[in-house]
């Protein structure tokens, strides 16, 4: 059985004076074309690694075999280098080769950090909220989550080694923040985060 996630190795050509950026790319693959897609992925990933600022790429495989959506997480050291790759002739050729393997055109979303937590389902994100707003909402989320987790998990995890205890509690905390707390706080504060001009 294939791992649900596979990684390509990281490149070392990073810039210290830039901010990393992530592109989240979705491909819905036609049934029976999974092996072709994975061969395609490894080929395009090898070419992407040759581009300046490439930090790594991962793909999350579909768990639902009735909807074969692969999610590609592509990291570059800055937006300009990501844009150079996304608009390159080499990538354009790879995307042409991809067409017979997918059901619909790919979707690409570009993210630079905390804004991954500030996405509204009914509003594709063009630009993230200001950093201070993201910081304040994230702080509130952590403030609400940590005491609750400590109270609930302390009796259950107290007999475990400290490192394992921390591994479990931080994993649960991040999952709660990502899938439960932050989506709700983003909805609650949507008018403040995304004021209408």
TrEMBL record:
<dbReference type="InterPro" id="IPR011008">
    <property type="entry name" value="Dimeric_a/b-barrel"/>
</dbReference>
<feature type="transmembrane region" description="Helical">
    <location>
        <begin position="162"/>
        <end position="182"/>
    </location>
</feature>
<feature type="transmembrane region" description="Helical">
    <location>
        <begin position="132"/>
        <end position="150"/>
    </location>
</feature>
<protein>
    <recommendedName>
        <fullName>Antibiotic biosynthesis monooxygenase</fullName>
    </recommendedName>
</protein>
<keyword id="KW-0472">Membrane</keyword>
<dbReference type="InterPro" id="IPR038762">
    <property type="entry name" value="ABM_predict"/>
</dbReference>
<keyword id="KW-0812">Transmembrane</keyword>
<keyword id="KW-1133">Transmembrane helix</keyword>
């Amino acid at each position: 059985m294939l791992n649900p996630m596979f990684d390509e190795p990281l490149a070392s050509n990073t810039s210290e004076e830039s901010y990393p950026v992530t592109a989240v790319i979705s491909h819905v693959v036609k049934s029976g074309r999974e092996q072709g897609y994975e061969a395609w992925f490894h080929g395009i990933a090898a070419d992407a690694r040759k581009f300046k600022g490439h930090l790594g790429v991962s793909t999350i495989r579909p768990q639902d075999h009735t909807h074969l959506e692969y999610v590609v997480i592509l990291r570059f050291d800055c937006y300009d280098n990501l844009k150079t790759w996304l608009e390159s002739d080499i990538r354009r050729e790879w995307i042409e080769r991809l067409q017979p393997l997918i059901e619909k055109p790919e979707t690409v979303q570009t993210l630079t950090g905390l804004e991954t937590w500030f996405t509204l389902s009914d509003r594709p994100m063009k630009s993230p909220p200001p950093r201070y707003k993201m910081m304040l909402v994230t702080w509130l989320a952590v403030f609400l989550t940590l005491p609750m987790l400590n109270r609930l998990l302390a009796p259950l995890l107290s007999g475990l080694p400290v490192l394992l205890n921390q591994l479990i509690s931080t994993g649960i905390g991040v999952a709660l923040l990502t899938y439960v707390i932050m989506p709700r706080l983003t909805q609650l504060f949507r008018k403040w985060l995304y004021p209408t001009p």
